[in-house]
Design a protein that fits this description.
Strand content: 25-35%
CATH topology: Severin
Shape: globular
CATH architecture: 3-Layer(aba) Sandwich
Radius of gyration: 14 Å
Number of strands: 3
CATH class: Alpha Beta
Helix content: 25-40%
Order of helices and strands: EEHEHH
Number of domains: 1
CATH superfamily: Severin
Structural class: alpha+beta
Strand order of the largest sheet: 1-2-3
Length: 92
């Protein structure tokens, strides 16, 4: 968490494995866009444009999570339960 820059953008992709309601083992790629509030606006536009190309290159058809502050990171880590995440991702 401390390594997230406050004025630079980052992407994060990880493989989330879970068992759905039908008892099937599922693996979904999750794409997180670190877009801090303190980063330059010009960079935000360039980063958003590059994001779609990057996702296409990786052949990702998944939900995007945009994280703008460390508070958002805490929300996704501690408030959003695994059950909620599975429910969201089961539609992708």
């Amino acid at each position: 968490m401390n390594s997230l820059p406050e004025k630079e953008y980052r992407y994060c992709v990880f493989d989330f494995e879970f068992v759905n309601q039908d008892k099937m083992a599922i693996s979904k790629m999750i794409f997180i866009n670190w877009s801090p509030d303190g980063a330059p606006i010009k960079g935000r536009v360039l980063y958003a444009t590059a994001k779609e190309s990057f996702k296409k290159y990786l052949d990702l058809n998944t939900k995007d999570y945009i994280v703008c502050s460390k508070g958002d990171v805490y929300f996704y880590l501690f408030q959003l339960t695994e059950k909620d995440l599975i429910k969201e991702l089961d539609h992708y």
